[in-house]
UniProtKB/TrEMBL annotation:
Organism, scientific name: Loktanella fryxellensis
UniProt entry tagged with the keyword Disulfide bond: no
Stored Pfam families: Amidohydro_3, DHOase
Recorded GO MF terms: allantoinase activity; dihydroorotase activity; metal ion binding
Any one biological process term the GO annotation gives: pyrimidine nucleotide biosynthetic process
Residues annotated as domain Dihydroorotase catalytic: 51-235
Cell inner membrane listed as a keyword: no
Protein name, entry field: Dihydroorotase
Length: 426
């Protein structure tokens, strides 16, 4: 019987929306009490006034197994996640080959169980090969452990195919995750349209591409009644449509990647390819609008959109370089920029990082409540550091935060009451 008793902690409770000093008791991997006495024989952990919060649940992590293990493995991703306070990775199916059969899903589950030190929940493709022509065996994949279905940034253009897939997913109670970007307008673009794109001579995509695709998906949600999550809402123009859909009672939630909350299109500067993302970075006005949307709860979830790319695919001209950035290890310190800028307090930040992802996937974690799994992160929100990408634990180190000044250091991470990361203090 393992008992832990955390004392001198600053408890960040996303359910009660409180940030108060206190203690937390854990027994056999489960939270048993807040502010109770230390049980006899319990291991006492003095938090020294640091913040103790539910571990992060990161929706939309790419682990490059099978097919591109040199970019990221479950072992390296798990180590990076633990170092970043992420206790659950919800993995994408956009691997090579895609996760579109029960056999492929079983491979992922076995590898994750054997190699990752944090929890892994796999998603499966919505259509075979992510080609948008024929839906996958959603029922079999769900029985095999798929927690959601998505084709990622391969948007299904055939509305009839998509409507049938959504109808079938609705009949099974399955969650579908969409990527609201009109593929016609987005084709060939690598930045958002605007003065900067023009000055740099780069092909751009209008923010309306997000709004148009979201409008279509909302119509299909209304028609089919499916549970739907938009993986990234990054523009001000898409927010009114999202707000109306929620007000009308549709089963829709939305997320946003941390890079779109903390960076803008000017950061591309002199064609820096670590800042090439999908969708592309937006204007500062858009960034401010989506921060407000997270603060009010209109956008439900913050994720890393962890997308490892090797050096060869990034060291190319901007238009030719691969899109994406790693983010497991930088998600929390980057998100703390919003706290230090007085835009979002810590309990609401952890609603977006932990509690709301748990709600989305019907998980018992994401909270400090009695009976919840002891998936915890202990961190100092004020500890400053300059990020050196060579210290990241991911196999790929394509981070836009290399050399950036950040605040917020993870001190320890626990999964089911077992410590999976401990910072070595200098």
């Amino acid at each position: 019987m393992t008992q832990l008793h955390f004392i001198n902690a600053r408890l960040i409770d996303p359910v009660a929306l409180t940030d108060l000093p206190g203690s937390l008791t854990v027994q056999d991997g489960v939270v048993t009490a807040q502010d109770g006495p230390a049980p006899k024989g319990a291991k006492v952990i003095d938090c020294g006034g640091a913040c103790l919060a539910p571990g992060l649940i990161d929706v939309g992590v790419k682990v490059s197994e099978p097919g591109e293990r040199h970019k990221e493995s479950f072992r390296s991703a798990g180590a990076a996640a633990a170092a970043g306070g992420v206790t659950t990775m919800v993995t994408r199916p956009d691997t090579s080959p895609p996760i579109d059969t029960p056999e492929a899903l079983e491979f992922v589950r076995r590898r994750a169980s054997a190699e990752s030190i944090v929890r892994v929940l796999p998603m499966a493709a919505l259509t075979k090969g992510r080609l948008g022509h024929e839906m996958t065996e959603i029922g079999f994949l769900r029985d095999a452990g798929a927690v959601a279905f998505t084709d990622g940034d391969h948007v299904v253009t055939d509305t009839k195919v998509l409507s049938r897939a959504l109808t079938y997913a609705r009949s099974l109670g399955a969650l579908v995750i969409g990527h609201p970007q009109d593929p016609g307008l987005s084709a060939g673009a690598c930045v958002t349209t605007g003065k900067f794109a023009t000055l740099r001579g780069l092909p751009g995509v209008s923010p309306m591409a997000e709004r148009m695709a979201l409008d279509r998906d909302i119509a299909l949600i209304e028609m089919t009644g499916v549970r739907y999550h938009a993986d990234q809402i990054t523009t001000a123009r898409a927010l009114p449509a999202l707000e109306r859909a929620k007000r009308n009672g549709l089963a829709i939630t939305a997320g946003i990647g941390i890079h779109h909350l903390t960076l803008n299109d000017m950061d591309v500067a002199d064609y820096r390819t670590f800042f090439k993302l999908t969708p592309p970075l937006r204007s500062e006005d858009d960034r401010q609008a989506v921060i407000d949307a997270v603060a009010t709860g209109l956008i439900d979830i913050i994720c890393s959109m962890h997308t490892p790319q090797d050096e060869e695919s990034k060291r190319l001209p901007f238009e030719d370089a691969a899109s994406g950035a790693v983010g497991l290890q930088t998600l929390l310190p980057a998100a703390l920029r919003l706290y230090h800028d007085d835009r979002i307090d810590l309990p609401r930040l952890f609603r977006a990082l932990s509690l709301n992802p748990a709600h989305l996937l019907d998980l018992p974690s994401g909270r400090l409540s009695e009976g919840a799994p002891a998936d915890l992160v202990l961190f100092d929100p004020d500890a400053p550091f300059v990020l050196d990408r060579s210290t990241l634990l991911s196999k790929s180190r394509n981070t836009p935060f290399d050399g950036a000044r950040l605040q917020g250091r993870v001190i320890g991470t626990w999964v089911g009451g077992t410590r999976v990361f401990e910072r070595q203090m200098a």
